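Re-run with default settings, no changes from the original entry. Doing this only to confirm the output is reproducible before filing.
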Amino acid sequence: MTKPLEVNPLKLSQPMGALIAFLGVKNSMPLMHGAQGCASFSKVFFTRHFNDPIAIQTTAVNDITAVIDGGDYSISEAVKNITLKVKPELIGLFTTGLTETKGDDIKGVASLLKDEHTIVYAHTPDFEGGLESGYTKAVEAIIDQIVVATLMCEKKITIIPHVSMTPLEVEVIKEQVELFGWSVYALPDISESLDGHLGEKQGALSSNGISMSEIVELGSSSAVLTIGNSVHSCGTKLCNKNKNMKHIHFDSLGGLVNSDKFYGSLMEISAVAMPHSKTIRWRKRVQDALLDTHFILGGKQIVIAAEPDLILSLSSVLTEAGAYIKAIVSPTKSSSLDSIKTENKIIGDLGDVEGFLDKETLLITNFHGERLAKKEHSILVTRGYPNYELVGNQLKNDLLYEGTAQFLFEVANCIIANSNHH
């Protein structure tokens, strides 16, 4: 990145990542410590993406209180006001650029309030990192501050998904692990809170997710499965709570090869010789899907602009079908990007995407890529946050055998529709 400014931003902030993490905990109240606009922006952003109400509160710091108050008062007041109406099982307190620059002692405030409320605090200034790191910091904070250390191992597995995974993807992975006879927990679990189920009422708290009592006990898992480079450290943190726990890591579960590794690992720790017959059936289907789509995707030029873990996942699938990754643009640095074969790796924004587009190129990015795709007559497949144009974002699955097949078909069909159109 050599530009002095972002022309067409792609990056999302750390507090937005932390918000998603806390929304995966049942009856939790994400509390953003900062100005009112920070929280309302995130609320509108995710409400539009998921087409569902998003629970978030703010300490509503303004320029006066920022100077006078040490941070304690506005947080204590916010907690007091929130808990008059609702009883959260967890208050997820996370910071913004304003309150971090000022240096508010959120650890101190959390310990003052800990007798009355369960509070997890995370430092997530928006002047560093991005969506992935903010999410990771919140998940690490939950593990550090809530999970109890033990040496016991029960017949259960904890899954830690990366921030770009959809609610359905989290659910599918839980179900696949369950097929091997394990009890499964996801931390955080957005498959139950952001999956777009019709709730009782507009929630002031997250509508579902992993419960606090389940989080406390996660230390007794036999294994932790981390999916995505950005959450590898969360798995290490959880293993620190129990030295007998195994850590199994996957950079991505997109594509045939990665899916094979996933099932191979599960067969090994479950001491099972064969996966479920349905799984074997889907593996054959994805092999066929690779054949069917290879003629359309083979040599096709593709540009991906998204979060690093998502770029790796999508490019894994497409390169298996013979597509050519022309360029990748990521908002933040990550070792996820190291293994991707492409001549153009850029840490930047959507402005950097423009030079790589033409009518032969397929662009995969969030809905802000629509204008670029139209201008350059490129084909657009929408992935990542936000996607305001289409409904059903929460029920997309691009992972493991079934998701890989569906994603290949979707991309190939977009190309077919486009060539018929021109």
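The chain has three domains: 14-146, 156-275, 278-421. Residues 400-421 form the longest helix (22 residues).
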